[in-house]
Amino acid sequence: MKTLEVQSLNKFFGRKQALFDVSFDIEPGTILGLIGPNGAGKSTIMKSIVGLTDYNSGSIKIDGKELTKNKRSSLENVGSMIESPAPYLNLTGRQNLKLFNDGSTTAEEMQEIMDETQITEFADRKAKKYSLGMKQRLGIAISLLNHPKLLILDEPMNGLDPQSTHDLRDLLVKLSKRGISILISSHLLDELSRIADYYVVINHGKVIKKSDAKSFLSDGLKNIRIEVSDMDKAMNILSSEGLSPVIYDKKIEISDNDEGTALSQVIELLSQSEVQILDVTRHQEDLEESLLKILSEDNSKEAK
Amino acid sequence: MLTLIRQELYKQLHGKFYIGWSIVVLAITLLSGYFYHNGGTALSTINASGRVFGNGLSMVLIAMIVFASSLLTKDFSNNTVKYLFARQFSRGKILISKLITTVLMFVYLVIITFIATAIANVLFNENRAFLWHDIFGYLIGMAFYLFLMLSIVLLISNIFKSNAVAIAFGIVFYFVSNVINVFLNILVDKMEWIKYNPLNFLNILKQYSVPEYSQLSRLSVTQLEVGSIIWGIIFLLITYVVYNRRNV
Fold first, then answer.
1. Would an 8 Å CB–CB cutoff place B90 in contact with chain A?
2. At how many degrees (to 10) do helices B91-124 and B221-245 cross?
C-alpha cells in the first residue's frame, strides 16, 4: 500500500487556479523531492495534504485512508513542518515536545528524538531564545513525535549550518530506512539530490515531470567541454558542421549522447584543421541544471 | 478531545495569563474588601461581601474578555496554528477544547475571587456576615453575561490575525457595547422589536443586581437568560463556520 496518494488535486484561490490536476504518490520508506520555483505550488500541495488549506477537487489518501475536511484520522500517521518551524516561544524545547505528544511517544522515545535531532543540549531553554537553525531542528523533532509513517518537510534545511545539514540528511535517510516515507521540498538541490529517491517537478501549479532520481539525472544531456589552442577557428569549424557549440568558462561546450558520437566527430574535425586540443572533459548535468532546463522548456511551451 | 484539552491546559499552565490575572483579581478583591468594610460610615454600614465579590468578578470579566479575544487569534498570530490544524483533530473539536478551557479558566478565576472575598470578610468585616445570596446572584448573572459577551468577542476576534489587535478590539467592544446599548434602548420606544437585539441581552448582569432595569431592557430576567443562551449559541455556530473555513 502506498503511504501517500495524491490524485487530480485542484485548488483555486478565488478565481485563480493554483493547482492543476496534481497527482503523485509515495511508496513506503522512500524520499520524494518536490521541486520547482518559488510560487509553483509546492507549499500549497503540502498544506493540502496536512489539511491546512482546502482543495477544490481531487483526493488525498494517506496509508490508504481518504483525507477530507471532517475525516482526518489518517493524519495520525503524519508529521509535518510546513514553511517554517513555529514552536510555542514561551515554552522550552522539551515542553514543546511534551505539548505535541499525543501520548503515544514514551519518555525514552522522546529523548531518542531529541538526541537524533540534536536538541538535547538546549532542550530546557525557552524557544524564543533559539536561533533559526535550533528552531528548525525543534520543528523536525516535533514532526517525529507520535510515530509518523509519513513526514512532510517544507524547506527543512533552511537556516542549518553545513554540519547540521549533513546530520539532517543522515537522519532522513535513516528514517526512510526505518520505513518512514518523506515528502520534502528544498531549494538546496545539491542536498536534496543526495537523499531523494524520486522527484516531482512543479511549475505554475502543474506536475511537469515525475521520475526516479537515477533516470531524472541521466535524462540530462552529457556535455563535452573542450579547451583548444584557437577558440575562434574551432568555433567556426564546429558551427559549420552543425554541432551548435557554445562557449562556457573559456571552453567550448557541445552536447553529446551516451555513445560519445559528437566527441569522436569533434576530435576528428579539429585534428584535420590543425586546431590543438588542450583538454577534454565530459560533464553530467546536476539536479539544478536539469531542473532549470525542464523549467525553461515548460515556460517556453507555455509562452507559445 | 481529552488530548486537546490537556494540551490547551498545558499551554495555559506554562503561560503568564493565569498567574498575572490571579494576582490582579486577588488584589482588587482584597482592596475593595478593605474599603467596603473600613471605608467610613457610608460604606461600612453596608454588609458588603456581595459587592466585594462583584468587584472581583469585574476583574474576572476583563480577564475573560482578554482571554477569549486571544483564544483563537494567538495561534494565527504566532503561527502555531500550523501544528494545531495539521493533525487528526477536526477544527470543531479544537474549538470545543478551547471553549472548555475558557470555562475552566473562568471557574478557576471565580474560585480565586471567592477565596479573596472570604479572606477580606475574615480580615476586615467585624460581624463576619457573608451574603451568599448576593454572591450567587452576581455569579449567575455574570455566567449568562459572559456566555453572550465571549461568544461575540470570539466571533469578532476570529477575523483578526494579530493577537494584540484582537485583544484591543475585545476590550473596546466591551465598553462600546454599553454605549450602543443606550442608543438602542432609546430606539426601542419606536421599534419594539429592537429589544431582541443581542446587545440588549447584555443588560442581564445589571438586571440581576437591579431588577428595575427591566424598564429599560423591556425584558424579564427569564427572557434575558433564554435570549443570552440563544444568541450565544448562534454566535458560536457562526464562529465555528468561520474558524472551519480559515486557511493557513
1. yes
2. 140
